[in-house]
UniProtKB/TrEMBL annotation:
Mg(2+) binds at residues 233, 254. One of its GO terms (cellular component) is cytosol. The gene is mnmE. (6S)-5-formyl-5,6,7,8-tetrahydrofolate binds at residues 23, 84, 123, 447. SUPFAM superfamilies: P-loop containing nucleoside triphosphate hydrolases. GO terms for molecular function: GTP binding; GTPase activity; identical protein binding; metal ion binding. GTP binds at residues 229-234, 248-254, 273-276, 351-353. It comes from the Bacteria. It is found in: Cytoplasm. K(+) binds at residues 229, 248, 250, 253. Its EC number is 3.6.-.-. GO terms for biological process: tRNA methylation; tRNA wobble uridine modification. NCBIfam families: mnmE_trmE_thdF (TIGR00450), PRK05291.1-3 (NF003661), small_GTP (TIGR00231). It comes from Alistipes communis. This is tRNA modification GTPase MnmE.
Amino acid sequence: MNTPNDTIVAPATAVGGAIAVVRMSGPSALAICDTVFSGARRAGEAAGYTVLYGTIADGARVLDDVLVTVFRAPHSYTGEDAVEISCHGSRYIVRELLALLVRRGARMATPGEFTSRAFLGGKLDLSQAEAVADLIASGSRAAHTLATDQMRGGYSAELETLRGELLRLASLLELELDFGEEEVEFADRTELRAAMERIGAKIDRLIDSFALGNAIKEGVAVAIVGRPNVGKSTLLNRLLNEERALVSEIPGTTRDPIEATLNLDGILYRFIDTAGLRTTDDTVERMGIERAYASVARAQIVLQVFDAADPAIEPLDLRPDQCRILIANKIDRMDPAAAPVSLPDGALPLSAREGRGMEPLLERLRAAVDASALDDGRTIVSNSRHYEALHHARTALDDALGGLETLPSDLLGEEIRQAIFHLGTITGEITTDEVLGQIFSKFCIGK
C-alpha cells in the first residue's frame, strides 16, 4: 500500500464547502508545492508550523489565492514533510489543483494512506490509527469521547501494561530453561497463578466493556414491538418529534422495519419501529413480522408496547443482557368511569398521541445504558477486531492456567507468549500487510 519514496496528495475536506484543504505528504511535498505556489516565501524555505499566503498557478494561469501550511518531518501527522493547501471550495478548483500537483510529481493517495504512513512512521499505534476513523465517524458525544480517549493512547497504555506483565512471566519461565539442569524455579507457581489470574481479570473487564463500547459506537439498538395498532409508530414519531413513521388505524400498516436515531445526553439511540406481532395469512405481512423478531434479537433495549385497555403481551424470547421496558399506551382513550385495568408490574402508562408519560420513558432509556465508565476514564473496547483479539488472548491465558502444574516451562511459556501475541495484534506490534490493508481501506481518501 505504501511506497515511502512517493509523495501523496488528496483532498482532506468534503467537496462543496466554502473552503477546501488539499493535503500533500512525502519527501518531495515541499519541492512540489514550490513548483506551483508563489508567495513572499517559498514553502521549502519556511519553518514547520508556518502559514504562507500566495497564489497557485499553472504557468501563467493563476488558479486561486491560497494559504499553505508547512509541516516539517518528523513533526507532522505522517512524520514526513507535508503541506496543507487551503483554497476556495469550488469543485473545479480542487480538481484542477489535484491534477496540477499530480503532474508535478505527486500521486493520488489511497484510502487511509496518510494514517497508514503515520502508523508505519511510529506516530500512532494501530489502535490509535483505527480511532482516527472512529473519530471522523462519531455521531454523538459519547462516541466522540470514546474515539478521542483511544486516539490519545490511554487504551494503548493499558494494553502495553498487560503485555509487559505477561512478558515478565514468560521471561521468568525462560530463565528456568537456562538453568534446567539445576532445577531452579524462578517462577513460583503460586505467584504465577495469582499474576495470571490478575491479568485475566483485567482482560475480562476489557472484554465485558465491549457491549457498552459497541453500543456507543454504533448507537444503542432499541426495538419497538407489540401487536398491531397499539401505537408503536405513534410512539416513534413522538420520540423523534416528527412524522417519521406512517400512522394508520389499519392493522399491518408497518411491514418493513423503520429506523431512526435520537441523541439522548450525548448517546445515540437507534429506534426500530417493527411490524405488529400477530398471526396472519398475508405473506408480505408475515415477512415483516419475521423481521420484527429479528430486530428484537439484535436490540439492546426492547420497548414492548401494548394497549392500556387490553394489556395482552406477546411472549418474547429475550437474552439476559437485553433490557425490556413495558409501555401501556393509549391511556388517553381509557374511560375514567370504567373499572381500573391491572397493568403488568413495571409497565409505564403513556399516551404517545398526547405525549403524556414520555419523560419517565426517557429516564428508563437513559438508565438502561450505564455510560459512567466514560466519565470515570475507564478503558472501553469498541472495535470488534480488538474484542476478538482479547478473546484469543484470554483463551491462551486459560490454557496456561490449566497447565500450570503439569506443563513444562517451555510449553507454559509458549501459551503465555500466545496471549502476548494476540494483545500485540491490537496495537500493531504484531501485524500483517493483509490486516493493514483491510483496516486502512475503510478510511476516507484524505485521511
